[in-house]
Write the structure tokens for this entry.
Amino acid sequence: MLDVTPCERSQERAVGQIPHQNRRASKPPVCIILHQENSNPGHVGQWFVRNGYSLDIRKPRFGDPLPRTLEQHCGCVIFGGPMSANDTDDFVRSEIDWISVPLREGKPFLGICLGAQMLTVNLGAKVGFHPQELVEIGYYPLETTEAAKPLGHFPDHVYEWHKEGFELPHGARLLATSAGAFPIQAFSYGAAVAVQFHPEITYAQVHRWTGHNPQRLAMHGACPHQEHIEGHLRHGPRVQAWLDRFLRRWVSGEFVAPAPTPELVAPAPRLLRA
């Protein structure tokens, strides 16, 4: 059942960060799971509001319960955060276990960065660091796999902000890859999609993330500050255009891919260091 109080409380936290919501929206809400007190769902949240969906924002880290079922929701999106899917905090383990709800009910699920890694762990695969401690922080090239082309091409550059990557879970279909530090960039499993990158990122968020985290920009493999800004101006509009097409198909259930054939399964990933 839909728990109203956490939804309304979380929406109040996001006032001024996302468009005002239409209380008479006729479409079912989307469950939005965030991990920091002042987090907001960026362009993803804006897309749902513009298209008539209300946002049921939950922050389990701060005590919000997760819905027992998604029967009254159109789907769920779990966003990123500074924590790891390997952490032992109760809310991290609870979220990972809870992902079985949309998987079992066949509801559209989207994991972004940490959310993608949580889905990976739920499906029994590993999340870990690059053996040479490389990171991906900034805009990096992305390649759409042959398996994903019938579903639509991914953007050719995307915004990354992570120091851990994930393996391809057994039975998942590789959708996007990279020649960089972390080759597995997106996969699908039933109605669930995982993306390592941040399609929700706004211009203001790029400034805030880079301005508040100078130590991250000094990590091995991270892009310099100015490249974040220039990269967003160059690539951001194409990512937003892709996001519009992707979410329309995702929320309608069109992004469900059949089981992969052997030739479309991902190559063996680089070793990850736990």
